[in-house]
């Protein structure tokens, strides 16, 4: 019932261990909702983008139509206005745009004698820890805002778990950091006002602009934090294969997401082996069953959906439609 579980959501993140089929499930979810009439934006935050390969067309850093009404077979009674647009966040371009914007702000805010040191600092920051994550988070905020304006649903195909968990921790950290800068700025302004009261200087447009930038940034990350932790509007789907390591990582992801106040909407056990296709796969199926029992014991309250191993290469609208048709089987 994955499609039903996400019907009321405006934002859905699809994550999990690398290689378990996150992109396929995210794309099938987007397609399934589009077939029901939704306007869907599918966003890849994974540096190893696969949307283009999966849909058989070029996907870049701006929204590209992946499936329109003519490509979709709507459900009975549903409208035909749904579509899927895709976007792959380009990490290098994102960092470049981020640093260019910061450089422009610094040139406006700093005296000319400081421009060269500031440029050297930014060049060092290009490779600094956190720069990539901060830039990608900005683009996630962009996509969420675009979704609120122009789409019914935004589906994020996320990077492997560790990278995604670091991203989810960032809005709080960046909002808190910006709040600290604002507090320092407030103290500085009070001191400046006292000096001006003694005839020692004037408030500048630069001071006002700096404050506007900091407030806008704080509000943006606070808003993103509100969206991500809103269980009515946002959900996280964890994809796994029923094997030891993916199950162990799923348990870890579940604990960390719930610790961050993020709703885990569903678990998807992808590529389940058939029980009736020979002893090799039957044995594998029994082993998978044991891993899923362990998962259910640890996470009993989150719906667990099982998606069978499908034949052939999973690529193109037709194959994704077949996968979307499978997003309804819940385990006993």
TrEMBL record:
CDD domains: ArsA (cd02035). SUPFAM superfamilies: P-loop containing nucleoside triphosphate hydrolases. InterPro entries: AAA+_ATPase, ArsA/GET3_ATPase-like, ATPase_ArsA/GET3, P-loop_NTPase. SMART domains: AAA. Residues 8-296 form the AAA+ ATPase domain. It comes from the Bacteria. GO terms for molecular function: ATP binding; ATP hydrolysis activity. Pfam families: ArsA_ATPase. PANTHER family: ARSENICAL PUMP-DRIVING ATPASE ARSENITE-TRANSLOCATING ATPASE (PTHR10803), ATPASE GET3 (PTHR10803:SF3). Belongs to the arsA ATPase family. This is ArsA family ATPase. It comes from Streptomyces armeniacus.
């Amino acid at each position: 019932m994955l499609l039903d579980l996400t019907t009321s959501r405006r934002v859905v993140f699809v994550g999990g261990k690398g290689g378990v089929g996150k992109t396929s499930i995210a794309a099938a979810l987007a397609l399934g909702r589009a077939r029901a009439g939704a306007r869907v934006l599918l966003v890849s935050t994974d540096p190893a983008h696969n949307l283009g390969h999966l849909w058989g067309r070029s996907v870049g850093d701006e929204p590209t139509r992946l499936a329109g009404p003519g490509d979709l077979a709507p459900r009975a009674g549903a409208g035909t206005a749904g579509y899927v647009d895709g976007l792959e966040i380009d990490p290098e371009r994102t960092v470049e745009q981020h640093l260019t914007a910061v450089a422009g702000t610094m040139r406006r805010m700093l005296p000319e004698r400081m421009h060269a040191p500031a440029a050297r600092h930014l060049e060092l920051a290009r490779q600094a820890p956190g720069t990539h994550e901060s830039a990608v988070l900005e683009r996630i905020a962009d996509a969420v805002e675009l979704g609120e304006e122009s789409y019914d649903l935004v589906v994020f195909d996320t990077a492997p778990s560790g990278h995604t968990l670091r991203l989810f921790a960032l809005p709080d950290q960046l909002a808190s950091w910006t709040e600290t800068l604002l507090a320092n700025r407030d103290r500085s302004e009070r001191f400046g006002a006292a000096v001006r009261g003694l005839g020692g200087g004037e408030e500048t447009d630069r001071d006002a602009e700096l404050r506007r930038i900091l407030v806008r940034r704080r509000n943006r990350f606070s808003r993103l934090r509100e969206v991500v932790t809103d269980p009515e509007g946002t959900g996280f789907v964890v994809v796994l294969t029923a094997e030891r390591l993916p199950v162990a990582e799923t348990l870890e992801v579940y604990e960390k997401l719930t610790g961050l106040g993020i709703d885990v909407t569903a678990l998807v056990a992808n590529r389940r082996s058939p029980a009736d296709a020979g002893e090799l796969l039957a044995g594998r199926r029994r082993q998978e069953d044991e891993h899923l029992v362990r998962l259910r014991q640890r996470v009993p309250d989150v719906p667990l959906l099982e998606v069978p191993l499908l034949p052939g290469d999973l690529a193109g609208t037709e194959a994704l439609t077949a996968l979307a048709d499978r997003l309804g089987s819940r385990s006993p």
